[in-house]
Every structure is written in structure tokens, then in C-alpha cells.
């Protein structure tokens, strides 16, 4: 297939067990176009909204990446992992006390508004040119510079024995894995992120998103119809 000139943004509902780069590669192959990127990495564990930029859409990539994000997820209490999520190795377990809704809300409230967050070792952030996750594989732990982040809103959706479902609205660069880990510390029993789904990025949500399976199985012409034009993107952003 010859390379097509395609400009715009494709909203994708990322499947679990794949990287954001995997999605870019799938779109590139399906549409036969080379200039493809994504706005804001989702971990393999996570599902949900991934903005794929094509052609001249890559010029607004940084702008789209800078916008606030909304996630829903589940925190598993009683075990911390080296990656701070369910994909990592358990490094410590603790009994989970009988927590009241008030105690849980108090722990979440500690991470409202402005605060500094220390990125996890298992991350793509680089230290002296080397990605932290590569150092983590070697068993190394290095000092990470805390990042200034902001949580605009949170909501506790459900409480079960040793699990909490939540929603959080936050700035870019926010590690929800670390959020789960730190809340576990505040509760005194440790925790990790069990599942995560991005539901919104800026003004874009999952309503118009296409699944990865659809991209893989449908005709290119069908996927092309789903791409938002740059004027439409600007209008949706309120620009």
C-alpha cells in the first residue's frame, strides 16, 4: 500500500497487554501512512483513551499531551510491587485493617490539589540518558526528582475487602501507579494499582473512540472516516 497523506486525530480505545507504540504501529500499517504518533503513554496494563495523531496532526501533539486526564481504576490493598502496579513483583505484604469510608477518604484527600510526586523506578524517565526501567531490571534504585502535579478531583466509586475503585482527574505527567502506592502508604497497609482505564484527555472522551480490534479487522476506509480533522479538533478543544 502506498503511503497516504492523512492529517488529523484518531481516538483509540487501547486494549490491555499492549503498549502505546504497538497501537501506533497498528494504525501505521492499517492506513499505510508513516507520520503517526500518540499523545500520552498508557502502560500495557491500562486500557482506554489514546489520542493518535497523523500527518500535520503531529504538530499539535504537544498541545494535546499537555491537557488534563481522567482515569478510573482499582487499587489493591495489602501488597506493594516494584512497579507499583499488578504487572510488578510483590516486594511487601501487610494485613489490611478494617478501614472506614472516612479513613479511605482522608487518605485520598491527602493527594488533592498541588503536590510533588516521585516517579516510580519502573518508568521511561531517563537518568543520565538511561531509562529508569532498564536500571530497575538491573536491580538498581536511583534518586528520582519529584514532579509537581495537580489533582483536580477524585471520587471513591466502591469499597470492597482489600480493593478500592476510584476516579481521578489530574494533570499530565501524573503517575496513577504512584498515586495508588502512596495512598496505600497513607492507609498503612501498602497498595498497588490493579487496573486502570483512561476515560478522558482534555475535551476528548471514549464516546467516539475506535477499538484496536476494529482497526485491525475493518477496512482502511472505515477507519479513515473515524479520524477527526484538524479544524474539528480545534473546535472540540474550544480553540
Q: Give the helix proportion (percent range).
A: 25-40%
- The count of strands amounts to 14
The CATH class label of the largest domain is: Alpha Beta
Largest sheet: 10 strands, mixed
Overall shape: globular
**What is the CATH superfamily classification of the largest domain?**
Pseudouridine synthase
Q: Count of DSSP helices?
A: 8
Per CATH, the architecture of the largest domain is 2-Layer Sandwich
How many domains comprise the coordinates? 2
Tell me the radius of gyration.
19 Å
* Separation of the first and last Cα atoms: 35 Å
Within the CATH hierarchy, at the fold level, what is the topology of the largest domain?
A: Pseudouridine synthase
In terms of per-residue confidence, which ranges show pLDDT below 50 for 5 or more consecutive residues? none
Beta content comes to: 25-35%
Could you state the order of secondary-structure elements as H and E? EHEEHEEEHEEEHEEHEEEHHH
Q: Let me know the average pLDDT.
A: 91
Structural class: alpha+beta
Would you mind describing this structure in some detail?
This protein is an alpha+beta fold and 239 residues long. The chain folds into 2 domains: 8-66 and 203-236, Pseudouridine synthase; 69-200, Pseudouridine synthase (2-Layer Sandwich). It is 26% helix and 34% strand. It has helices spanning 20-31, 61-65, 101-109, 132-137, 176-187, 212-217, 220-224, 230-236; strands spanning 8-14, 36-39, 47-54, 69-77, 79-81, 90-93, 113-117, 126-127, 130-131, 147-160, 163-170, 191-201, 204-205, 210-211. Strands 1, 2, 3, 4, 7, 10, 11, 12, 13 and 14 form a 10-stranded mixed β-sheet that branches. A two-stranded antiparallel ribbon has the order 5-6. A two-stranded antiparallel sheet has the order 8-9. A hairpin with a 2-residue loop joins strand 10 (147-160) and strand 11. Helix 3 packs across helix 5 (176-187). The longest helix has 12 residues, at 20-31. It is globular, with a radius of gyration of 19 Å. The model has no long low-confidence stretch (mean pLDDT 91).
